[in-house]
Specification:
Layout (H helix, E strand, L loop, with lengths): L4 H42 L1 E13 L2 E10 L2 E9 L9 E6 L5
Antiparallel strand pairs: 1-2, 1-4, 2-3
Length: 103
Amino acid sequence: MAISEKEHKRNTKQFLIYSLAFICIIAIGIYVKQKGKSEDEQINKYGSSTIGWIYYTQNSTRGLWVKYNFKVENKTFKGVLRTYKKGIKVGQKYEVEYCLVLK
């Protein structure tokens, strides 16, 4: 049983769309991985640490959201992270690794 030219064009178009979507997903994955690696390299090379404190937590279906502050050179910085660790409470102190970017 032979397929019609119209069906062949539709199948080819569908194949190209799926292929392009797959390539985009792979490219985004590579970009995200390289960006994370670059940030880790900057912290390893130029980073410092200080003591930060937690001022807000919220449980969600995707883990625990934590908001924290830390001070560097009398300036207060804020951050947010998602974690699955248990027992994190508001007011808790911990070590923060940071890397200031100079403009």
